[in-house]
Design brief:
This protein is an alpha/beta fold and 323 residues long. It is built from 16 helices and 5 strands. The two termini are 47 Å apart. This is DNA polymerase III delta subunit-like C-terminal domain-containing protein. InterPro entries: DNA_pol3_delta-like_C (IPR048466), DNA_polIII_delta (IPR005790), P-loop_NTPase (IPR027417).
């Protein structure tokens, strides 16, 4: 299920096991908090947490024993296990019966950053799976608009969309930046206010840099380069980010896979893959091959000591501007 369905699902109150899985820390954390807020009382007595990496083989009995314990002066007892990737064999031997016959008084919350190589927990009928992957820009834009509205702030669509784009739809960052806008206290929230307050993710600045090159706005390219270099105090970071960006463009341009498949492989939002496809076609395969090769070479020379960080940085700029 989508994370946005969680609130209504909790209201039904008939789940025993929740799985929050995906790379967005905001969704994972807030999913767990919503379940605990709805069902947990006396947490010092009715809450237990486990590190999934320590639960293997017979050690899984610790988890199943905790699930079998009764709550104290409450209706529910909540067990949380993080980064939990049991093997198929361990699931069948130690967990299957406990999971499929989980007591009504017990709620198990599994919080995983990724799918792992173990049993496919999200496909188990006894587990309610909520997708905590980075969501698309339209959903994040609506979330920003609704959150500002609840706080009493009017906003225009472009301002909300810019928040989503500048944060690369990472809800942890989006939430933090929206709170910053609320604390600023000016309504309506405009694109100009967002530009002033919201720090653009470094990867987004890289996107702006390459976009400037594509349209031959070289002064804009150099301005952003200077800002990134000054802010990070690490020119090697800028080189690495540029190389990664051009490499991803090349992969997207030459791949026959779907946007969804590429998004999972490259760990990018799907909307970013689609936008990157347009940018990749504008550059063309030949230029992208040249950029990735040149930047890799300068980075390797820097790591081996043949070029200083400054030297590698300015060689990279020259390759992009004049290559």
């Amino acid at each position: 299920m989508k994370y946005t369905e969680l609130k209504n699902d909790i209201a039904q109150g008939d789940r025993r096991i929740y799985l929050f899985e995906g790379e967005d820390a905001y969704f994972r954390t807030h999913g767990e908090e919503q379940v605990k807020k709805a069902f947990l009382t006396l947490p010092e007595l009715n809450f237990a947490a486990f590190d999934g990496s320590s639960l293997k083989g017979r050690a899984l009995a610790e988890l199943t024993s905790a699930m079998a314990a009764y709550p104290f002066m409450a209706e529910k007892r909540i067990i949380r296990v993080s980064e939990f990737y049991p093997t198929d064999a361990d699931y069948d031997k130690y967990l299957k019966s406990a999971f499929e016959n989980c007591a009504e008084s017990t709620i198990l919350i599994i919080v995983n950053q990724g799918a792992g190589k173990g049993a496919a927990l999200k496909r188990k009928k006894c587990i309610a799976y909520f997708d905590c992957s980075h969501t698309d820009d339209e959903t994040v834009t609506r979330w920003v608009y609704a959150t500002l509205k609840r706080a009493g702030f009017a906003s225009d669509v472009q301002a909300c969309r810019n928040v989503a784009e500048y944060c690369l739809c990472d809800m942890a960052r989006v939430s933090s930046e929206v709170q910053k806008i609320i604390e600023y206290g000016v309504s309506p929230v405009t694109a100009e206010i967002v530009e002033q307050l919201v720090y653009k993710d470094a990867d987004y600045r890289i996107y702006e840099m390459t976009d400037a090159v594509a349209v031959k706005n070289y002064s804009r390219f150099l301005t952003i380069c200077g800002e990134l270099s000054k802010k990070s105090a690490d020119k090697s970071m800028v080189i690495s980010a540029l190389h990664r960006y051009f490499k991803n463009l090349l992969i997207i341009l030459t791949s026959d896979e779907s946007a969804a498949s590429l998004a999972a492989k490259l760990k990018m939002p799907e909307f970013a893959v689609r936008k990157s496809g347009d940018r990749a076609r504008a550059f063309g395969k030949e230029r992208l091959l040249y950029y990735t090769g040149a930047l890799y070479d300068f980075s390797a020379r820097m790591r081996s000591g043949r070029l200083s960080p400054d030297g590698a940085f300015y060689c990279s700029l020259a390759a992009i501007l004049f290559g």
